[in-house]
Amino acid sequence: MSASNQMGNRQGRSTELAVRLLTDQVRTAWSHKAVASLLQLDIMGAFDTVGHRRLLDTLQRKGFLQWVLNWTQSYLTDRSATLFFDEEESDPIRIQSGVP
Hints:
It is a single chain. The protein has 100 residues and is mainly alpha-helical. 38% of the residues lie in helices and 8% in strands. The longest helix has 17 residues, at 15-31. Residues 4-100 form the Reverse transcriptase domain.
């Protein structure tokens, strides 16, 4: 991908625009009976602190299909972290924000 196609951290290129462009490309592929695949990497950690409920509410307000909401909720459900420090391990801590 060339730098002119880069969306992240560029003026006038919001996350919403990136999602809309991606959605259009997927729909175009589907209309031609093709398969669309995607690999995304959150290299900069843009979603490290997003609240799960807020993310789901935002997706719903933006008109995402119910199956996308269900999948996202399932992906974020029952997440936990365990801390290790000085050879000690904490009990699991429930994670309610951040996207893995």
